[in-house]
């Protein structure tokens, strides 16, 4: 559940919303539109722990064999709630390293410098 208050649905889109409310509304829109491919760029940016869990639950609810998602993040904290199928490191517009969820933990520990172009 995205915990969207009914009054949020009556306001103009994203006007006066907190960062967490905006992210929840983005997830809500995706649920309504049911796209086949979703790109989420730094979905965890500006979220407190509670909002992060709510948004992650929404993202997990969107997972489906018929849908592909590209989730862009620089931090492991989002991946504590959304377990990725694959992790890629992009540098200078190219994939320079790939792995599974454990690779994301390695990146959190060791950093990205070794993969920089």
From TrEMBL:
Keywords from the UniProt entry: ATP-binding, Nucleotide-binding
InterPro entries cross-referenced by the UniProt entry: FeS-cluster_ATPase_SufC (IPR010230), P-loop_NTPase (IPR027417)
GO MF terms held by the record: ATP binding
Protein name according to UniProt: Fe-S cluster assembly ATPase SufC
Organism: Hellea balneolensis
Lineage, highest ranks first: Bacteria, Pseudomonadati, Pseudomonadota, Alphaproteobacteria, Maricaulales
């Amino acid at each position: 559940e995205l915990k969207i208050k009914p009054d949020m649905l009556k306001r103009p889109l994203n006007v006066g919303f907190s960062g967490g409310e905006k992210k929840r509304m983005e997830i809500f829109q995706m649920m309504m539109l049911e796209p086949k491919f979703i790109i989420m760029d730094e979905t965890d940016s500006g979220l407190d722990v509670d909002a992060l869990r709510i948004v992650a639950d929404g993202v997990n609810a969107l997972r489906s064999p018929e849908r592909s998602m590209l989730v862009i993040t620089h931090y492991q904290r989002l991946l504590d709630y959304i377990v990725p199928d694959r992790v890629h490191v992009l540098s200078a517009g190219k994939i320079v390293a790939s792995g599974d969820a454990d690779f994301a933990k390695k990146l959190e520990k060791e950093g990205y410098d070794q993969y920089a172009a």
